[in-house]
Amino acid sequence: MLHNNLRATRNFGLMFLTIIILAVSSCTSRTSDPIAAPAESVPVAELVVRSDKLYAQRADLLNVREALAMLRRARTAEFQNYDVAWRLARANYYLAAHTKDERERDNAFHDGVEAGEAAIKLQGGKPEGHFWLGANMGGRAQTSSLSGLADAEDIRREMETVLKIDEKYEFGSAYMVLGQVDLELPRLMGGDPAAAVKNLEKGLQFGQDNALLRLRLAEAYLATGHKEDARKQLDTLISMKPHPDFLPEHNEAVAEAKKLLETKF
Fold first, then answer.
1. 15 part of a folded domain
2. Burial letters for 50-74: b for 16+ Cβ neighbours within 10 Å, e otherwise?
3. DSSP string of the chain?
4. Into how many domains does the chain fold?
5. Domain CATH number, residue 63
6. What is the pLDDT of residues 28-45, one digit of tens each?
7. Looking at the structure, do residues 59 and 143 belong to the same domain, yes or no?
8. Are the CB atoms for 173 and 211 separated by under 8 Å?
9. Does the residue 244 lie in any domain?
10. Please, are residues 203 and 172 in contact by the beta-carbon 8 Å criterion?
11. pLDDT exceeds 60 at position 11
12. Residue range of the domain that includes 127
């Protein structure tokens, strides 16, 4: 009888242990199932509008970071949206070019390149993706000599593509970037200050109000010994009325122009 009681107790224990194991397995199975991300409650078009308003106030980098957050939400909701992709590339470029945090800078340039490439895959016949991809590559190149050499031809290719599609885009800024490449690369690597002057002068046809383009042209004139031409560009830049859509860039160009006038003349 005792033997039977022990057997019954043992069987009950085994059965109880089996129930516990099944219950734990069931809970583990439920909790390991992927949790679906909540659906975006704001229409993508509205997120884009909000991001544009924030980007317009980009002199404060907090606004740029918030704009990027809006655009990331929009891209999660509509991954194949071209307007979201190129705006991500643009906002990442501005953040990378102005942050003092090196890690944030490197991450932003990386994300900007990725977003520009995505935009080109979606609509390669439009200028925005090509321009902002090239801009991010250029910014990355300025922070790394190895990236600079590797990216130079890719930057040229993207900007030349912009010119083929719409040479007026961003007030001739593709010419400006080409001029910078010619101006900043060593001659042995394809740099050519005289070619920089030509590209920048071409850009000026479409960028009379482009303060940064005038600044780069002044630098190219100085590099080629045309000091008076450089002074004219700097004087014009400082005195001209800023374009309302590019006030942060205008203010940066004016500050750099004043430094050049103080140090070079």
1. no
2. bbeebbeebeeeebbebbbebbbbb
3. -HHHHHHHHHHHHHHHHHHHHHHHHHHHHHHHSPPPPPPP-S-HHHHHHHHHHHHTTTTSHHHHHHHHHHHHHHHHH-TT-HHHHHHHHHHHHHHHHH-S-HHHHHHHHHHHHHHHHHHHHH-TTSHHHHHHHHHHHHHHHHH-HHHHHHHHHHHHHHHHHHHHHHTTTTTTHHHHHHHHHHHHS-GGGT--HHHHHHHHHHHHTT-TT-HHHHHHHHHHHHHTT-HHHHHHHHHHHHHSPPPGGGHHHHHHHHHHHHHHHHHH-
4. 2
5. 1.25.40.10
6. 444 444 455 568 789 999
7. yes
8. no
9. yes
10. yes
11. no
12. 45-166
**Same domain assignment for residues 56 and 127:** yes
Render pLDDT for 156-189 as a digit per residue (tens, 0 to 9).
999 999 999 999 999 999 999 999 999 988 876 7
Longest dimension (CA), the chain: 116
CA angle (254, 256, 261) in 5-degree steps:
95
Using the CB atoms, write b or e for 214-231: b if 16+ within 10 Å.
bbbbbbbbbbbebeebbb
Residues 162 and 49 in one domain: yes
For the stretch 112-162, pLDDT in tens is: 999 999 999 999 999 999 999 999 999 998 887 555 566 899 999 999 999
